[in-house]
Structure formats: structure tokens, C-alpha cells
Design goal:
Layout (H helix, E strand, L loop, with lengths): L10 H4 L1 H18 L3 H7 L1 E4 L2 E5 H15 L14 H30 L1 H4 L4 E4 L12 E2 L2 E6 L2 E7 H13 L7 H7 L4 H29 L6 H29 L2 H37 L3 H26 L4 H12 L3 H12 L4 H26 L6
Antiparallel strand pairs: 1-2, 3-6, 4-5, 5-6
Helix pairs in contact: 2-11, 2-15, 4-10, 4-11, 4-14, 5-7, 5-9, 5-12, 5-13, 7-12, 7-14, 7-15, 8-9, 8-13, 9-10, 9-13, 10-14, 11-15, 12-13, 12-15, 14-15
Length: 388
């Protein structure tokens, strides 16, 4: 029996933007009521050379955020990619050869030039040092300076660069989760969507760290390679392996119908719940920044919105020039436009810290994901007659 995509959005998915707004309010409230709670939880960490590397509570939340996504992936479908090389090749090319660099350029133009004055030219952020780094206080690394902040060595960087780093991490994370919903709503080829979900998950293991490290380095942000590779291992490889083997075991013992109708029905809210818990913790750190500068989220959202629409337009236009069928063009454009914000949040949190501007920027990606992607779905539906 062939696997099918869930053909409806759950309440969590449909109102994801609303839940994120609730988490912002809850996080700010908790930050005011119990300012030390998030910091205490984040303090339960795995340390390397006296430096916190992996926050255990956050790692648990992020694992349960990723595992339900990975267990849905049918890697057997990868072999089907050879039957439709044109849409698969287009999607891979856009995801890895175009999208990361347009995100870099758009984010730099918006955050580093157009909105720099609104964010604050002198505004700074404090991010984690790379694991094991024993840099001297006052030493300069990229755009950052090592300082002592609340008794811990941190790297002080311009706030806009921290937001910029979060945008970079979003731009190199192709979606492997809700794109299943977007592809269906646009009446696209379900098989192509499933194949690309599997391929994107595998290519992230190879390319996410390489491109992320390169673009962060060009952007004068610290490149903690050990933490970057560890992040990929914990937040991509571990749930990927766990999802693969548990999926094989469940299918072998319970069958595909039980897996789709029972197991996934219970598991799907787990991912969103873990995501929302992580957001509450993050906003309990960032409440003061948001209250003092409520437009901060807008300055981050604008380049993300522009990037999403641009990549969609490029992919959709190229698909038409390649004479792809609409059923292949629509999911190709959707996969290119959407982001794997779960991986981006996890990586930003590990590299720069839960309280960093980079982590906040990745959360803004969650905030705009649903309304923007639903807008693009409607565009697909109205332009279907463009294709043969």
C-alpha cells in the first residue's frame, strides 16, 4: 500500500501564527514574573572546558520537535527520484545554489543597511563563545569583542549581525515538514513532495553545516565548527536515525494503516507542543527587548518575507520555462519558498544561545510561515492555467 499525505491541516498547524503570538505573550509574562526560570533551565547543560554547549532541557524539547517530522519520511521514495529528474534537480538547485545566497544578500541589505538605524547602530547582543574557546577579554573575533557578561565570557556583537545570523540559518534550511501540507493544498504532485522531503533531509546532513559555516564566516560572525557539527548530529542526524528505525519497526509490526491513522495522529501535536515550549523559554529571555522595541520583529520579518516571495517566484518561473507540469511546479516552488525553522531554531540556540538575537530571528520565521505560505498556495491555485 502506498503512503499518502495527511490531507488537512491540524488545529496546531492552521493557527500556528496565533500560537506563536500566545507564546510571545506567555514568555514575556514569565520573564517578568520569574526572570530567573529560563536562565536556570538553560543552565542545565553539558559543558566542554567549562563552557555550556548543549542545554539539556532545550535539547529534549528540540528532539521531540524534530522526531515527529523525521519519522514521517519514507526514504524508500528516494529511488523514485530518477523517474522525474527535472523537478528534483530544480528543487535541489534552488535550495542549495540560490536560496542561501539570496537570503544572505536580502538580510544584509535590510538589516545591515536599510533598517540598521531603526534597530540601533550601537545596539549589541551577547552570544556564546565557541566550545572550548578561551579567548582573552577584549580580544576581537570577526565583528565581536569578548566581554564578561553576568560573570560569563560572551562575545559582544552588533545586534543587527545577530539577527542577520539567524536569517542565514533559516535561509539554508529547506523545509521537510509542513511543505507536505502546502504541496497538497496547492494540488501538487504528492509523490514529488515526499521524494524531496527525504532528499532534503539527507542533503542537510552534508550541506547545512558547510554552507552555514561559510556564510556566517563571510558575515563576520563566529563560526564554532564543533558546535555546528554537534548541532547537526543532535538535531538532524539523531532524530533522523531514530525516526528511520522506529518507522521500520512500527511498519513491520503494526502496518502502514496503523502508523498513519493511530501513531501519527498522536505524534503530530508533540512536535508543535515542543516547538511552543521552546518559544516560551526564548521569549522569556527576549521580553525586555520586544517591549522596549516592539518593531524589532517587523525589521526581521521584512527580509524573510521578501526572500520567501522571491524564491517562490524564481522557482515557479523556471519551472514554467522548463515546461514542467503544474503538479510538479507547485510543490517545487513551495519547497523552495518554505524553511525548516525547527532546525534553524535548534542550530541558532546551540551556536549562539537561547537569549541571542539569532535565535529570535529564527522564531520570526515561524511567525510568518503560515500566512505567507497560504498566500503562495492561493497564487498557485489562481495561476494553474499557466501550465500545460
Amino acid at each position: 500500500m502506498s503512503e499518502t499525505i495527511d490531507r488537512s491541516m491540524s488545529v496546531f498547524e492552521k493557527y500556528l501564527t496565533l500560537w506563536v503570538l500566545v507564546c510571545i505573550a506567555a514568555g514575556i509574562f514569565i520573564g517578568k514574573l520569574a526572570p530567573g526560570l529560563a536562565k536556570t533551565l538553560d543552565g542545565f547543560s553539558i559543558y566542554v572546558n567549562d563552557a555550556p554547549v548543549v542545554s539539556i532541557p532545550i535539547a529534549i524539547c528540540l528532539f521531540f520537535m524534530m522526531y515527529p517530522i523525521m519519522v514521517k519520511i519514507d526514504f524508500a521514495s528516494v529511488v523514485k527520484a530518477g523517474k522525474s529528474p527535472k523537478p528534483v534537480g530544480l528543487t535541489l538547485f534552488v535550495n542549495w545554489a540560490i536560496k542561501p545566497f539570496t537570503m544572505y544578500g536580502i538580510a544584509f541589505l535590510c538589516l545591515g543597511v536599510l533598517f540598521k538605524g531603526f534597530i540601533g547602530s550601537e545596539a549589541v547582543d551577547f552570544v556564546k563563545l565557541p566550545p572550548g574557546a578561551d579567548w582573552a577579554i577584549g580580544s576581537i573575533h570577526g565583528a565581536g569583542t569578548v566581554v564578561m557578561n553576568e560573570g560569563v565570557k560572551m562575545l559582544q556583537v552588533p545586534l543587527w549581525r545577530s539577527f542577520f545570523a539567524g536569517c542565514i540559518l533559516l535561509g539554508i534550511a529547506p523545509c521537510t515538514a509542513m511543505v507536505l501540507v502546502w504541496g497538497f493544498l496547492a494540488k501538487g504532485n504528492d509523490g514529488h513532495t515526499l521524494v524531496m522531503v527525504a532528499i532534503n533531509s539527507l542533503t542537510m546532513l552534508l550541506l547545512y553545516g558547510v554552507l552555514g559555516g561559510f556564510l556566517l564566516g563571510v558575515g563576520q560572525m563566529p563560526v564554532p565548527w564543533e558546535a555546528l557539527l554537534l548541532s547537526i548530529a543532535i538535531y538532524v542526524a539523531l532524530p533522523l536515525v531514530a525516526g528511520y528505525f522506529s518507522r521500520m519497526w512500527i511498519l513491520g509490526h503494526k502496518g502502514l494503516d496503523w502508523f498513519n491513522e493511530k501513531f501519527l495522529h498522536v505524534l503530530t501535536p508533540v512536535s508543535i507542543t515542543a516547538l511552543l515550549l521552546t518559544l516560551v523559554l526564548l521569549f522569556s529571555f527576549k521580553g525586555e527587548v520586544i517591549l522596549s522595541q516592539p518593531l524589532m520583529i517587523l525589521w526581521i520579518a521584512i527580509p524573510l518575507f521578501v526572500q520567501t516571495c522571491l524564491i517562490f517566484a524564481i522557482t515557479y518561473w523556471v519551472a514554467k520555462k522548463m515546461r514542467l507540469k503544474y503538479e510538479d511546479a507547485a510543490p517545487s516552488a513551495m519547497i523552495g519558498a518554505s524553511n525548516h525553522f525547527e532546525v534553524a531554531i535548534a542550530t541558532a540556540t546551540m551556536l549562539f544561545g537561547l537569549s541571542s538575537g539569532a535565535a529570535l530571528a529564527t522564531v520570526v520565521g515561524v511567525l510568518i510561515e503560515v500566512p505567507v505560505m497560504l498566500m503562495l498556495v492561493r497564487i498557485c491555485q489562481k495561476t494553474r492555467n499557466w501550465f500545460d
